[in-house]
Structures are given as structure tokens and as C-alpha cells.
Specification:
Largest sheet: 2 strands, antiparallel
Structural class: mainly alpha
Number of strands: 4
Shape: globular
Order of helices and strands: HHHHHEEHHHHHHHHHHEEHHH
Distance between the termini: 67 Å
Oligomer: single chain
Helix content: over 70%
């Protein structure tokens, strides 16, 4: 693989991830990380040094736990705990529901390796392949996923609350230390000012600010199920913990700022991401530049040929009386399956002989299939403008991310600082920290 092709593939995969605002945390990661850097920079320019210290600890520390805590914990459970019980982490427990005979059908069309797992679901579960447990494998799959969801979420929430408290504790300790050392340093400061060698050093370095980086620490069931299986919504639970803890631990004078920041977070990461995406898609539709499909589909170098090949299969599916069943009857090596897989509408897996099959371990949503088939047809009709479609897809995806970054990293802190000046006679420093300094100075 050549260097240009590696770069191209990397760009397409990145764009694909950034464009998925339904259940991927990749857009969330990009928006949060870049907006955190921008936010800290904004406070460095227009706030106080204490703002920079606190924002660096709080935003980067909580951000790391918030974005990567749950996926990391789930990954460890999948690799270490699931094998101890002989479970396959690839199996989504939602496919075990036999409503309308769905599970029986999946079992009948499963590949040999997947059929083997399905056949063992009624067996007693075992620990380390030795100790028999009073549960079936099916019960273990359902229970293990719930336990993984609850434990990973609660552990990350606990760590986040501790980090927020640590942030405030370090600020209080720094203020106390500064006040205690200020008196003892006055006489020494007078001495060095009168000495030519030491005086030159002090005067040269007096205006330099210490880098903030050095202060960083070295239907009810369906509703619940949606949060369990959607990574983005799972992460939103942590956001609720963060917002609640920040408000609870917030000091006098800064709770308005906390509320404003959390509102921006909720709106631009969760609430407005999909509406902004839909707005760009609506504009693209009006311009005859359909961009609803994933970037991996739109940027495929063989797209035109695949669309022609997929057309006949789409026509059959449009007349299908049982769409989900007929999806599994598609040729797994065919163009339509590849397009749907690249779009994230269904999942494929390769067996030991490297033969590709539609996996029965992941559920398929009928509405998602219908929507994707319609988008494929629209793209097929406009494929002559594919270069313009690629450009607009890139603009729309990056534009969605950029809007959120600007709002959270620039607009929100500027509003907070403006509020401070209005409420504190032009003082742009954190009012809670200013009050804490005054209290400690009285006690010193």
C-alpha cells in the first residue's frame, strides 16, 4: 500500500467516524478534545491564571475519563472476563429475543461458528470451563452485558467526582501556599532587586507566565436498553454525573458559569449534532448532492460499478414481504452487502476460511435498512456529480464539528467572562477563587 493510499484511507475513515452522530463517540471525542484546548486557551487570554489551572485539570482530566473510561473498561471486560465464562463479546444480547420467531430464524441462517454458539445457549454456563453455574449461557449473556454497562458507568462516574473535588482542593492549597510564602518573600525580593546579577534575572523573567500544563495532574425497557447499547447515550449518563457534581461542588459565584457550560455541552454534543447534520443533508438534497450515506460509501473508488450491481438487489428488496429475512439471503460477497456494511447498516464477519458472511450476532433495524436503500438509490441517480458530493460531504461533516468546537471552546467561555465583568465591576477572574483568596488573607 502506497503512502498516498494510506493517507486517503485514513482521511476517509476519519471522515466516516466524524460523520456518525447517531451512536458513535468519535464526533464527541473530536469536539470535546479540540474545544477543551480552545477553551483553556480562551481562559488563558481573557481569564486568570487560576482559571487556566482549574480548566486544564478539569477539562482534560474529566474529558479523558468521560470519553475513554467506559470503552476501555468494556474492552478489558471483553478480553479478560468474558473468556472465563466461555462467552463471545461479539454477540449482542438483543438478538436472543425470539419475538415472532426471530431468534429461530437467525439460528437457521447463521454460519457454522455462530450456529455453534446459538446451540449452546440453553446449556449450563461454566466458569473457567470447569465449574458449572446455576445459569444458562443465554442468561449469562444478558446478565454479563447489564453488569458490564452498570459497572463501567458507575466506576467512571465515581472517578469523575473525585477528580472534580481534587481540582478544587489543589486550587485552595495553591492559594494558601501563595499567601503564606508572600510575606516571607518580600525581604528576599528587595534584596535581589538591589543586586545587579539577581536583579537582571528577576526583571527578565518577571513577566513570564508559568505554563498551565505543569499544574495538570501527573417504552421503559426500550428506553433503558437504548442507553445500554448506544455508546453515545451511555456516555451522556456520565455527562449527567459530571454536571451534577460540578454544580453540587461549585463554589459561590461560579454556579451560573457551570450551568451555562453544561447547557452548551448538552446542546452542541448531544442535542444539535444530528439536527445540524440533517440540515446539511437537506441542503444537499436541494442541491442534488445526496450525502446521507457514510463517507466510506461515497469515497469508494469503485462506487459507480457497485451501484449498478446493487440496483437489481435493491429492486427485489423494495418488493419484499419480509425485508429482514430477505437481507440474510443476499449474496454476502455482493455489492449491496458491501455498501450496507460500509454504511454501518449491517455487520459482516469472516469465518476461518476468510469467507464473508452477514453476522447474526448483531441486530438489524428494518427502518435503517429501508432508509439506507432509499439513500443508495438517490446516490445512484446523482452519481455523475460524485466529486461535488464528496466535497459537500467533507464540508458538512467538518462544518458540524467546527460549529460545536467554536460554540463550546470560544463562545461559551467568552460569555462567562463577559458575565463576570458585568457582575464583578470589570474583574474577569473567577469570583469564587477571588473570594477564597480574600478569606485566606484575613486568616494569614
Amino acid at each position: 500500500m502506497t503512502v498516498p493510499s494510506i493517507i486517503t484511507n485514513g482521511f476517509i475513515k476519519t471522515l466516516s467516524g466524524l460523520g456518525d452522530n447517531s451512536d458513535s463517540i468519535i464526533p464527541l471525542v473530536a469536539k470535546d478534545v479540540i474545544s477543551d484546548c480552545t477553551l483553556v486557551h480562551t481562559y488563558k487570554k481573557e481569564g486568570g491564571i487560576d482559571d487556566v489551572r482549574e480548566k486544564a485539570i478539569e477539562e482534560f482530566g474529566t474529558g479523558a475519563l468521560w470519553l475513554f473510561g467506559i470503552p476501555t473498561f468494556k474492552f478489558l471486560v471483553d478480553k479478560a472476563i468474558y473468556p472465563m465464562f466461555g462467552l463471545k463479546p461479539e454477540l449482542d444480547p438483543r438478538v436472543l429475543d425470539n419475538k415472532n420467531g426471530r431468534f429461530d430464524f437467525l439460528k437457521s441462517v447463521a454460519s457454522s461458528s455462530e450456529k455453534e454458539v446459538f446451540s449452546s445457549l440453553s446449556n449450563k454456563a461454566k466458569f473457567l470451563n470447569k465449574f458449572e453455574l446455576p445459569f444458562t449461557n443465554m442468561q449469562m449473556y444478558k446478565g454479563a452485558y447489564v453488569a458490564k454497562f452498570l459497572t463501567s458507568t458507575l466506576l467512571c462516574a465515581f472517578a469523575l467526582t473525585k477528580l472534580i473535588k481534587y481540582k478544587q482542593k489543589t486550587t485552595d492549597e495553591r492559594i494558601k501556599k501563595d499567601i503564606q510564602s508572600k510575606k516571607s518573600s518580600l525581604q528576599f525580593e528587595k534584596f535581589v532587586k538591589n543586586d545587579s546579577i539577581y536583579g537582571d534575572f528577576v526583571n527578565k523573567n518577571k513577566s513570564k507566565n508559568i505554563s498551565f500544563g505543569s499544574f495538570a495532574p501527573s417504552n421503559a425497557g426500550e428506553f433503558v436498553s437504548d442507553f445500554m447499547f448506544n455508546p453515545l447515550k451511555n456516555t451522556s449518563i456520565l455527562d449527567l454525573f459530571i454536571g451534577g457534581t460540578r454544580f453540587k461542588e461549585g463554589r459561590k459565584g461560579e454556579r451560573k458559569e457551570i450551568v451555562l457550560k453544561e447547557l452548551f455541552q448538552v446542546f452542541f454534543i448531544y442535542g444539535l449534532a444530528q439536527p445540524i447534520q440533517k440540515t446539511f443533508e437537506f441542503i444537499g438534497k436541494k442541491l442534488n448532492l445526496p450525502i446521507e450515506l457514510d463517507a466510506r460509501v461515497i469515497f469508494d473508488s469503485k462506487l459507480k460499478d457497485k451501484l449498478v450491481e446493487a440496483k437489481s438487489e435493491i429492486n427485489k428488496l423494495n418488493n419484499s414481504k419480509n425485508l429482514l429475512n430477505d437481507i440474510y439471503k443476499l449474496n454476502p460477497q455482493g455489492a449491496l452487502v458491501e455498501i450496507l456494511a460500509n454504511n454501518g447498516t449491517l455487520s459482516v464477519v469472516k469465518d476461518k476460511n476468510r469467507i464473508k458472511n452477514i453476522t447474526t450476532f448483531k441486530p438489524i433495524d428494518e427502518n435503517d435498512i429501508k432508509s439506507a436503500l432509499k439513500h443508495i438509490e438517490n446516490l445512484s441517480e446523482a452519481v455523475s456529480s460524485i466529486n461535488k458530493i464528496k466535497i459537500f460531504k467533507t464540508f458538512a461533516t467538518l462544518g458540524n464539528v467546527a460549529i460545536a468546537i467554536w460554540a463550546m471552546g470560544v463562545l461559551q467561555p467568552k460569555i462567562n467572562i463577559w458575565m463576570r465583568k458585568k457582575l464583578n465591576n470589570g474583574d474577569n477572574r473567577n469570583p469564587a477563587i477571588v473570594q477564597k483568596e480574600k478569606e485566606m488573607q484575613k486568616l494569614a
